[in-house]
Write a structure and sequence with these properties.
The protein has helices spanning about 25-30, 50-60, 110-120, 135-145, 175-185; strands spanning about 5-10, 10-15, 65-70, 75-80, 90-100, 125-130, 150-160, 165-175. The protein is of the alpha+beta class and about 190 residues long. A hairpin with a 5-residue loop joins strand 7 (about 150-160) and strand 8. The protein is globular, with a radius of gyration of 16 Å. The two termini are about 20 Å apart. The model has no long low-confidence stretch (mean pLDDT about 90).
Length: about 190
């Protein structure tokens, strides 16, 4: 994927693949995020070893990640499409999207979700899923509007830094089924 120009709050930025040179900018981005917004992630991306592992997985092809960075290189959003080619679920990928609070509310989440869906289709993924906390109403709306449906509610599944537990909801989109339905009605690609 090549860099694509985007506008965030009237300012130019670019959507491009995450690069190893972005490690410090990603850490700063994660540090600036409200801690609650990170709870759906399996790992704490504020920690340099986690970012290093993430970059290793990108290099190894297990993860495809994009960032939106402003002209100074500051990260405003990032995505990850996570797939384990060695698992029983190699046809499935997880979508992860984080957006800085100041970049929210202008349709960026939907654009990034659509980018992830397109990447998944191009990569032969048959099913996508996303994990969210139930109070992330905007994100839940975007994914459900795109056809994702609730598949699970994991009660008290994550614990925040203060020790409080939070639920995780899992939404999924069966791309293979959606593709067959679109073909049946003459829609899609």
């Amino acid at each position: 994927m090549n860099a694509k120009p985007v506008t965030i709050a009237g300012q130019p930025a670019e959507l491009r693949p995450l690069r190893p040179t972005d490690a410090e900018a990603v850490r700063a981005f994660a540090e600036a995020m409200p801690p609650h917004d990170l709870l759906f992630l399996a790992r704490d991306i504020r920690k340099p070893p986690v970012i290093a592992a993430w970059l290793d997985q990108i290099a190894g092809g297990q993860i495809s990640s994009q960032v939106i960075a402003d002209s100074s290189g500051r990260v405003l959003a990032c995505t990850a499409l996570v797939r384990d080619e060695l698992s029983w679920s190699r046809h499935v990928a997880e979508v992860r999207i984080l957006i800085a609070p100041e970049a929210r509310g202008g349709g960026l989440g939907r654009r990034l979700a659509l980018e992830c869906v397109q990447q998944a289709r191009e990569g032969g993924v048959e099913k996508l899923f996303v994990r969210l906390t139930p109070d992330q109403e905007g994100a839940l709306y975007v994914f459900q509007d795109m056809g994702f449906v609730p598949e699970a509610l994991l009660r008290d599944h994550v614990r925040d830094a203060d020790g409080a537990t939070h639920d995780i909801v899992i939404l999924a989109l069966n791309l293979a089924r959606q593709g067959r339905q679109q073909a049946m009605f003459g829609l899609g690609e």
